[in-house]
Amino acid sequence: MSTSRDLERYAALFASRTKVMKSSAMRDLMAVTARPEVISLAGGLPDTSSFPPDTFAAVAQRIAAESCAKALQYGPTEGLAETKDCIAQVMAAENMRVDPEDVVVTTGGQQVIDLVAKTLIDPGDVVIAEGPTYPGAVPVFCAYQAEVVQIDMDGAGMRVDLLEAALERLEREGRRPKFIYTVPTFQNPAGVTMSLARRTRLVEVAHERELLVLEDNPYGLLRYEGDPLPPLFRLDGGVYVMYLGTFSKILSPGIRLGWVVAPPPVLEKINLGKQAADLCTSTLSQLMVQAYFERGRWEDYVESLTDTYRTRRDTMLDALAEHFPRQAEWTRPGGGLFIWATLPDFIDTTDLLARALRDNVAFVPGVAAFLDGRGRSSMRLNFSASDEESIREGIRRIGEVVTEQVELYGTLTGEYRLEDAAGAEVVPMPTPAERERRAKGE
Amino acid sequence: MSRVAVLKGGRSLERQVSLRSGARVEDALGRLGHEVVSIDAGHDLIRRLREADPDLAFVAMHGRDGEDGTVQELLEILGIPYTGSGVLACGRAMDKVLAKHLMLEAGIPTPEFFAFNETAFRELGAADALGEIEERLAFPIVVKPSSQGSALGVRFARSAADVPAAIVAAFSYDSRVLLERYVDGRDLAVSILDGEPLPVVEAVPRDDEFYDFEARYEIGRTDFVCPAELPDGLTAAAQELALRTYRLLGCTAFARVDLMLDAGGELTVLEANPIPGLTDTSLLPQAADAAGISFDSLIGRILELAVERQPA
Q1: Which CATH code, of 2.60.40.10, 3.40.50.1820, 3.40.50.2300, 3.40.640.10, is assigned to A53-294?
Q2: Do residues B176 and B191 share a domain?
């Protein structure tokens, strides 16, 4: 019988970078969200249920018939030329031109974040990210022991003025950030998109200060309204902006295919890092993408996903308006997979998740998107992975527990009523500072 | 050798810890030569127990359902002997308010407290009494759910401004909350095995920050010292208090009692856990180890002490 579960036996051997940031409370709670009876608005999964099985079969059939040996073999570390052609097509759909030489095919977009961090970060180095940032990037930055400076966002994305102020401060401290990590379009988790003015300024800042930027763009093609804005990569021309793309949201996360475009000297190091990590990306997956793209219908599938997600987003927005108390606010994403909702500051969404789980509904507490404990009153809600009925019911249940807590707080403070009879005077929410003053009798 | 059903997981927020406890218990039972049937407690719990027809059940569940007497009640109905405390002891220990009232009555020191259910605030205007309570307990005040076993939902209120949000947070976990006087001091745990106290474990948080409950069980953020280095007589006093608490609540076979030792050398009992963690970092196995009892022997002893009980 194994004693391999005895942690203390191995604990002394662990590298310091294995210390994870995620709290044990969060782990305990997330373990419960996986139960089948829970409506989970917590994940970030695309809906793969509408992908036609006969297309999958035809693609597999074709590989079996034409390139079986190749599919079963190792491939070049940087990826197959055929796959890079598909990547060029996807980038062209967002008006970007790319030289296949500048691309490395990776095992999902997540590997790009890991490889870029591996290539650039020494322990203690500064990385700039949005606040909130992609929760999946948090353990990567922790693993490489980066010091992450998170820049506040508003409805137009990262506050580039605050970024510049942070860069000034760092410069005074003699520290130069290794790179700026951003999801400018339909950001995960905030659901907001960086304005053109800020994109332009961000690229200027990168040039002025010779700073690398990692633009993570998984959702650019999942647009539900409005006109596209140019990706940072296009504005910059690939000098300081490294680009992360993925097939996960436009085709399948199961095939684990992403890519990175970076200036040649950086790409060379990334390629070495990739070689050490996994030699090459799955050849089978790459050939499947190639065969799928040759059918010429990939954009139709993206369009059908877009239609599905648009309806689900609208359903969630309607449900939020109906069920969340007016003290809550949330973003209205023009694309992507997420809505970011912020509740009054006396509600801690980690505790709220525990309460919501009793009603079998889950979301991601906002703290998961920060490295500094902020985000306690916010939550990330996913609308791509659940059908409309589940979204309506899930939001109704969350709204009910939020309302319950708002009311209870009102009762406790005696200063606030949720919904009085029509015409009743509603006292505005006290801020913590105000409450402190009142408590002191001032 | 016996066929043992190991009950673990379940719907509790301590599911993750319970899965680890259960897995470790299963390994030990296997080494001891028992046949193990592993059951993650869910909708099919009764059906699976009937199918497995075990000689006895090892309850390795923490928190709601497993530690509050629910699963124990079901096992009694099925006539399956089980490890650890019975329905009544579990019910008393998991309900911190009830346990503390019993301690007060029996003269066991426990930090002063007030407890409320939501109705008290919603319908009886209990909020108007918060001022008096705050004055009585003095800041900082510990606010916690009555029945949550882990650190989840436990908050410090440093001033009156913090109290309402802390109460809202605690109500996320339970319909009753407890406002308790904060004891500044050393954090001790005394595990009891078969009516005998084991060496005292002290949890020493590494961060100098104001006490962080979450840090308590996280590797690398808390150091555990066992046996705890205590002044003369205090080890025996802590063990005596723990044993009295164990008996008062009617625990069987094993339990862990958490205490505080303040700067004046006074001991107070915070709570008792009828099914403490059995993971690789848990305190009961550490204490047993310090007493020369290996994990396998510990599990073997607990199994021997399993009894069949009749439903009330």
Answers
A1: 3.40.640.10
A2: no
Statement to judge: residues B177 and B192 lie in one domain: no
Asked if the structure places residue B155 within a domain, the reply is yes
Domain span at residue B29 reads: 3-84
d(CA A130, CA B169): 28
ipTM confidence score: 0.86
CB–CB of A347 and B168 under 8 A? Answer: yes
- CATH number, domain of B41, equals 3.40.50.20
B22 closest CA partner among A5, A8, A357, A29: A5
Alpha helices (H) in A12-159, listed in sequence order: 24-33, 53-66, 68-71, 81-92, 108-120, 138-143
The first and second tokens of residue B98, run together, are: 């009830």
For residues B98 and B218, state if they share a domain.
yes
How many domains is chain B built from? 3
Q: Going residue by residue through chain B, which has 312 residues, state the pLDDT in tens, using 9 for 90 and above.
A: 899 999 999 988 888 889 999 999 999 999 999 999 999 999 899 999 999 999 999 999 998 889 999 999 999 999 999 999 999 999 999 999 999 999 999 999 999 999 999 888 888 888 888 999 999 999 999 999 998 767 788 998 999 999 999 999 999 999 999 999 999 999 999 999 999 999 999 988 776 554 455 555 444 567 889 999 998 899 999 999 999 999 999 999 999 999 999 999 999 999 999 999 998 788 999 999 999 999 999 999 999 998 777 666
All residues of chain B having their beta carbon less than 8 Å from the beta carbon of residue A5 are 20, 23-24, 27, 280
CA atoms within 13 A on the CB side of B107: 1
User: Is B308 inside any structural domain?
Assistant: no
Which residues from B are below 8 Å from A23, CB to CB? 214, 218
Flag whether B310 is in a domain.
Answer: no
Q: In which element (H, E) is residue A357 found?
A: helix A349-358
Select the residue of A1, A28, A439 nearest B160 (Cβ to Cβ).
A439
Distances from the Cα of B248 to the Cα of A139, A181, A338, B193, B251, angstroms: 46, 58, 52, 15, 8
| Closest residue in A to B63 (Cα–Cα) | A28
Same domain, residue pair B53 and B126: no
With CA atoms as reference, report the closest residue to A379 among A331, A421, A418, A412. Answer: A331
In whole angstroms, give the CA distance from residue B205 to residue B228: 14
Residue B177: in which H helix or E strand, if any? strand B176-181
* CATH number where B206 lies: 3.30.470.20
Q: How far apart are CA A284 and CA B248, in angstroms?
A: 65
CB contact under 8 A, A23 and B214: yes
In CATH, A8-49+301-414 is 3.90.1150.10: yes
Cis peptide before A228 (omega within 30 of 0): no
Token digits of residue B144: 């916690």
Closest CA to B92 of B101, B83, B80: B101
In the sheet where A329-330 sits, what is the strand order? A329-330, A338-342, A378-382, A364-365
A residues 186-225 lying closer than 8 A (beta carbon) to B: none
CA distance A13 to A34: 31
B269 inside domain: yes
Q: Does A36 touch chain B (CB under 8 A)?
A: no
Sheet bearing B35-40, strands edge to edge = B35-40, B3-8, B56-59
